[in-house]
Structures are given as C-alpha cells and as structure tokens.
Design brief:
By secondary structure, the chain is α+β, with helices and mostly antiparallel strands. It is built from 1 helix and 8 strands. It has one helix spanning 2-20, and strands at residues 33-34, 37-41, 46-50, 58-65, 71-76, 84-88, 96-104, 112-121.
Length: 125
C-alpha cells in the first residue's frame, strides 16, 4: 500500500510539473483601430468615405437593415484614393441601416486591424 501511495504522489507531482512548464506561444491580441468614417445619403444610396488605415490590405462593409441579416459587401481593395469612397446603392428610401466597416490585413491572416460602426438613414423619396 505504501509503495502504491508513493507512486501516486510521484506521478501527481510529475504531472503537475509538466503542466506548469507549458509556454504560451499565442500571439498578442490585435486591438482594432477606429476608422474615421463620414457618410452621405440619398433616397436610395449611402456613400461612405474614410482615410486609409496603415497596414490594412482590404476593407469589408457589412450593412444591416433593422430586423434583417447583415449583408456583406467586399472585400473592397481600392487603397489608392485618399479618402477612399464607396457607394452602397439599391437601398430603400427613408430607412435606417447599421453599417460596419472592417479593415483587414493579409499579413495577419485576415485579422481585423480597424473597425467602425455607424447608423445611416436614407432620405425620403
């Protein structure tokens, strides 16, 4: 009985020491920057405009009409212009839309480096 108890204690200590030596190699979390976005609207379209964010390779826009699923627009890769503009057309007049703009980078496996959320309403027709 004593030998089996010693074996159990040694095994327990050995197991604990293995767990305590594990190194955490996970990357540091990326804190997304805010994208400064301006918007304008007509009865059937919303135009977004923003300054490029350093390190971002592409932008994805998500647009949601109240009570519906988000619609993804993108990836949008026109990174030459400053400011960058994008027109979302074929929208319903006098309607509020929630918009999320995400900036992502290929170098980080598509992680979100920048984000901005806004609500914009189309005008009455």
């Amino acid at each position: 009985m004593l030998n089996s108890l010693k074996f159990f204690i040694v095994a327990l200590v050995f197991t604990f020491s293995l767990v305590s030596c594990v190194k955490d190699d996970s990357p540091d979390p990326i804190i997304a920057k805010d994208i400064q976005v301006t918007s304008s609207s007509t009865a059937e379209a919303i135009t977004l405009s923003w300054k490029p964010v350093s390190g971002v390779s592409w932008y994805t826009i998500y647009i949601t009409k109240k009570g519906e699923s988000a619609r993804e627009i993108g990836p949008y890769q026109n990174l030459i212009n400053d400011p960058i503009t994008y027109k979302i057309a074929d929208l319903e007049p006098n309607t509020a839309y929630d918009i999320k703009l995400e900036g992502k980078d290929y170098a980080y496996g598509g992680n979100v480096l920048a984000v901005h959320n806004l609500t914009v309403s189309t005008l009455v027709k």
